[in-house]
Input
Amino acid sequence: AQKVTQAQTEISVVEKEDVTLDCVYETRDTTYYLFWYKQPPSGELVFLIRRNSFDEQNEISGRYSWNFQKSTSSFNFTITASQVVDSAVYFCALSEANSGGYQKVTFGTGTKLQVIP
Amino acid sequence: NAGVMQNPRHLVRRRGQEARLRCSPMKGHSHVYWYRQLPEEGLKFMVYLQKENIIDESGMPKERFSAEFPKEGPSILRIQQVVRGDSAAYFCASSQRGQQETQYFGPGTRLLVL
Output
């Protein structure tokens, strides 16, 4: 069974600090996808990134960067120079393709990030 | 370029009533997923549907919950005889195809059972 662990329940940082959100996953499959979603206080889910298991290249998008390491089953997310608008709950998620050819996404419990001005 | 639409955004029901949650997938998407988010928790998979077919309902409670995705119209998640424990945010997601496709989420319906 697949599992996603986000050990940090809540993090507070002061604006402009860098912050890393940890994500550790478990899966038996060799082919899987990892995601990060943002849930701001308004409640919607915003897709941030998808990474497949064969692509271990780190990715950078503006102030966001992701570090995927299969050796440690981790997919960590770093926000550089944090801003108040980054305050949200961030979910890491994992999906495996199954015999039906579709994905069931398993979410972590989320990390609540508060950026203090 | 509308995203996934869900309505209502907020729904209040008394115990024993029925709740109907609607989801219109993104244009061109024929795969719909429903997830439930209990307070202070992550999202949990409930059901996966394609047009007129339930593919996987392994995450759905066995009683009182049902889902459909008719040929025409939105997908419906129906909860009969709601109880307080059904209070949660219900998210719908859609993808163009099932496999290897990112799921895009709607804004969710927040159900409150009094």
Summary: Chain B has a mean pLDDT of 91. Chain B has no helices and eleven strands. Chain B touches chain A through 28 residues (CB under 8 Å). The longest strand of chain B covers residues 43-50.
